[in-house]
Amino acid sequence: KHSPAWERQCRGTLRGTRRNLRARVESPAAAGLPHMDEEESEKSSELSDSQSALTASHLVDDELSELENQPVDDYSDIITSRLDKLVLERDSVADIRYLWRALIDSCGSKEACGIAIFAAVFEGAPSLQSMFKNDAEVHGIRFVLSMETLLAELDKPDQMLTSVESLGFLHMTLDVSLDRIVIFRDILMDLFEVEVPDAFNDEAKVCWKQLLNYVGGALIHVREQYGERVRLVTDSWEKTYASETVEQEVDEQRAGEASRAFPNDKEADAAFEGEEDFESSNALHVQAVPRTFTGMFKFNASMMGMDASGWMAEVLLSFDTLVVNIGNAARVEEECDVLALRISKCTREVPNLAQYRSCMLASLRALLPKIWQSCYELAWSWFWEVVERMLKKSVGRPLQWERALRIYNASVEEEQLHAFRSDVYTEFFVKAPSGQDFFKQSITRLHFLAEQVRQMTMEMYKEPARVVEEISALGLRHVGYGIPPTLFAPYVSASVEVMQKMTSDALVLEAYEWSLGLIARILVRTIKEGSTIVMKAINGNSALALKTAVSGAPRCDRASWLLQIRVGTQVISPLAWAIESGSFEAAGAILKDLLSFRADRDRYYYGADDLFTRHPDIVKRLCDDAPLLLPTLLQGLVWRSQATKNGLRRVNYYVKHLIVASDGGVAPALAWFTKSKDVQIISHPVVVLVSDCMWTGVARRLFIAAKAWYVVSLLAFVLSQAILPKASMTNRRPFVDEPDSQALRWVIFVIRCLVYLCSMGQLLKRHVMQVVRAFVQKDTVVLVVPIPRYLIDVNEAMSFVLMWLLLGMLFCEPMFYCWQADSWPTENCGASEEVHGRYSVLSMCAMAILWLLVVDMAVFSTKLSAFLLVCIHVLSVVGRFLIALLFLLLTFGSSIAVLKTVHEEYRDVPTAVLSLFAVTVGVYEKDYRELADEPMLLMAVFLFTAVSAILLLNLLIAQLNCSYVYIYQDMLGFARLNRASLIVETLAACPESRWHRFVKTLRLDEPLEFEQGDIGVPGGIGKREPSSLNPIVEDSIARFGGSTAREMPWPLDPDAEKGDRLSQLEVLLTKALKRAREQHPRRRPGRFSQESARSD
Questions:
Q1: What would the pLDDT profile of 752-796 be if each residue is shown by its tens digit?
Q2: Burial of 712: CB neighbours in 10 Å, binned 0-12, 13-18, 19+
Q3: For residues 380 and 370, what is the distance between their CA atoms, to the nearest angstrom?
Q4: Which pLDDT band holds residue 622 (cuts at 50, 70, 90)?
Q5: Beta bridge mates, 649
Q6: Residue 581 in contact with residue 479, Cβ under 8 Å?
Q7: What is the rounded distance in angstroms from the CA atom of residue 598 to the CA atom of residue 595?
């Protein structure tokens, strides 16, 4: 057996000899032989030389083939310059496998073996622990599984080389160095010597050292060799993506120019049709070549005769993710597994992945002709080889796994599932005791979660695209829960172990483990990518930590750090999560940071637009979940100048998003404020400004127009029912009031017909449509029977009742009954006598409702509206008093009626109740002395008087007083709340054109001045207020010098740092006092200070 150095030297010598000999055979001149002349002797000598050279070449080939079949190197050292096949003898392979099996048996299981390996690594080399983010258990099982794969392929050099390359690709993001490989190798060798000393002989030691050197050198070689390829792939893809962006911008620019040139849609369509005809006639119907990768790929696929709508379309959807994450092997492997699932839903056959490679390279060459070189060809070919290798591991298997898992799930009974769920948590808590601190819900909730996970493993095969989106969203929610990613691996391991106890079907176990592992990987990745320093500060509910977290954010991205965390296609908002999780301190700090004015010399930075763009419903969120933060939001929308002039201060209210929605319509913010019914918020200057602008600008005229119809109807109704019928009457009859003038009776008849036709007709049409719509859309509420929801509103309910009253009046109209009378129109005839009473009652009720419907006109005066609201508010107190009085009347009335009395007013229950009520209100006509002959009756009446007149009436007065005091404190707030509700109702029917005209008058897109000549940000309304109303001691704008680059973070504010230090000092003092109380719990408050004073 020769040494490795001798073998390398011999191999190089033989290769050089073979090259020279072949050169002599093909071209003697190139090999340094003399040039052939015309002499026959030289031809014969040359022929003999060629024959001898050919014979020598065959000998060299035989010798070289023998050497190439021998091991390339014994790998006594770590080789990083190249990556060859590892060829070992059969005895060496057997020794390696035997030693590994002995180590696993010594530890007890694969999981224990992995933990022992990494425990030894972390203990022997603490510096290596920084490379591993998860626990020893997670990395241990991964190491054991990877080693199992390599050991299974030791006798297959080609497969071994592929696996080692894949392993190196997975470790590309780690800082793997030669020193660290040596440390890891030596620790593992020491572990073998300690755990299995009998099996760790000299031969096994040499073999394992060769294997570890080979794998370690491969990791370094792949990292160094493929790093350049990754850079080439990502750079060229960025240029391809940039070309797509440019094309989209050009298309948008052309569309904008066309819209400006042809405002009319028909003219634009005609122009485009003419342009297309012109281009098609000049281009001779030549198909346009696409300029995007997707378009170019489909174009090339059609030219090559391939179908780009099947599995290739699925690859195209994932292609950007694969390219962008090419440096992250774990992410690429995860995407490939998901892609394999999606491909399985398109075709049942194994796709020819090489076709995609040909079309991909052709598309890239066409899109990047100026920079395309052989290095790009090699890099992209390597990229697709990596993807293809990962896809081949799973492509074709999901269909088999899905079928096996579906059959198994159909055969499992509920008792088995209950036992499965219980055993999963038992095993999980054994493997990860810290998980008990996070799974603190009831056992039924835990069983529900376990069942959801089990069902998700099956849904992953059925609808992979939907399930992946749901898992990503679930992972982002787990970011807010603060779940450590290290808990997922023990859960998967526990679940798989329990499943192994339930079934021995290898295909079912493989399907369950693969699907559950993929779900865990997606969750872990989502949590890691979403666990930003901002989210960690929110989980701690610390405003100080939040300020520290965003202090390093670029100026242009500071708002996005606080409003958006994107993981794949899923997005979570730190602000929304802070509100939902109850971290109100952090949420308030986010609002203050977003709504703070910052400025350098070039521009202003203000996050109101970013806030309302990301969360158009931020007002609703705060009203529902965090009303305490509403003042913070509203105060952040106000800027007040520090300088005053003539006793006035400049104020800018940035209320654009509270007035105008993103689509240009009416913003729902005022409706949300009104729904909250918070009089303090509705009286905030920002909300007052918004409501006043809407009221004076557009709502007032619409409200007058809407109420004018009720006013006209009321006037017509009063004239036709109460005034004109009483004019110039000489002939009076019961229930009949009719003037003598024929002309006046015609006027009454015409007015009543107009009321029936216009007022009642309009009400009938509107309510019929709303009732039908409510029942069709099932927008109803059940009181006794289902009724439309809109009738809950008092005004709508009164309008609905008015409609029925007018309908009743129409059917009872006396003039219609007397249409055959000689003096018609008249109400005085025999046919109308039976309806006069009903008609007058209906008319009276309708009159009252019409007056109540115009009470809303008090909204024009805030003070009058406030007084009206006070009256309405105290009516509830009066109602309770009347209920109590009714109870007393029935109690004493029924009791007195039992007595045998000669007084007629107390003989039965109705008369007794009526008499007692007269006593209560002070209209009783008789004297109490008349009851002296019946002492029991007199005593009962006196007792009722004491309870009702003395106790109940005085209690009513006290309650009215308290209620008035309460309502008077926020009287204007309630009035503004009432006006705001009317504004919301009125603007719901506002024409779009009128609303747009109103918005233009506000000029919200024009920047506002902060000071004279200092142009600020747009989106607000400028006002002046008295300088004494809101004193300002410092500038509201934080101005910074230095660099104005948008990528630079803001400099730290010295005043803020002082405040933070004071906050930290306060926290430390609080902790010290708490610790002192815990150490001396028996000391009374103040004793410590007294003893200190004595010692002083």
A1: 888 888 888 888 988 899 889 888 888 888 877 888 888 888 888
A2: middle
A3: 16
A4: very high
A5: 644, 1025
A6: no
A7: 9
Mean pLDDT check: name the lowest of 148-157, 579-588, 711-720, 725-734: 725-734
Omega cis (within 30) before 825 = yes
| 289-331 residue pLDDT tens | 677 888 888 888 888 888 767 888 888 888 888 888 887 777 8
Q: CA 305 to CA 294: how far, in whole Å?
A: 16
Q: Which amino acid is it at 848?
A: A
Contact of 979 with 864, CB cutoff 8 Å: no
Do 675 and 980 form a contact (C-beta atoms < 8 A)? no
DSSP characters for 62-120? HHHHHHHHS-S---SS---S--------HHHHHHHHHHHHHHHHHHSSHHHHHHHHHHH
One-letter amino acid for residue 346 of the chain: C
- Looking up tokens 């909204």, which residue turns up? 859
What is the rounded distance in angstroms from the CA atom of residue 828 to the CA atom of residue 1028? 71
Distance, CA of 560 to CA of 483 (rounded, Å): 24
Give the pair of three-digit tokens for residue 598: 């910052």
Q: Exposed/middle/buried for 1079, CB within 10 Å: 0-12, 13-18, 19+?
A: exposed
At residue 267 the predicted structure's pLDDT band, cuts being 50, 70 and 90, is: very low
Residues forming beta bridges with residue 645, ordered by sequence position? 648
Distance CA 745, CA 815 (A): 10
pLDDT at 590: 92
State pLDDT tens for residues 909-947.
888 888 888 888 776 767 767 777 788 888 888 888 888
| Whether 559 contacts 592, CB under 8 Å | no
Beta bridge partner(s), residue 1038: 598
Alpha carbon distances (Å) from 322 to 245, 318, 333, 350, 693: 19, 6, 9, 20, 53
Beta-strand relationship, 604-605 and 597-599: antiparallel
Helix (H) or strand (E) holding 781: strand 780-782
Cα–Cα distance for residue pair 354/312, rounded to 1 Å: 11
Q: Which long-range contacts (CB under 8 A, 24 or more apart) does 700-709 make?
A: 700/860, 702/986, 702/987, 702/989, 702/990, 702/994, 703/859, 703/982, 703/986, 706/986, 706/989, 707/854, 707/856, 707/857, 709/759, 709/762
Which residue shows structure tokens 């008349």? 930
With vertex at residue 548, the alpha carbon angle to CA 542 and CA 550, rounded to the nearest 5 degrees, is 105
The token pair at 173 is 């993001």
Cβ atoms of 21 and 53 closer than 8 Å: yes
CA atoms 761, 767, 772, 773: torsion sign: positive
Residue showing tokens 């689509």: 663
- State mean pLDDT over 27-46: 39
* pLDDT tens-place string over residues 811-825: 888 888 888 777 787
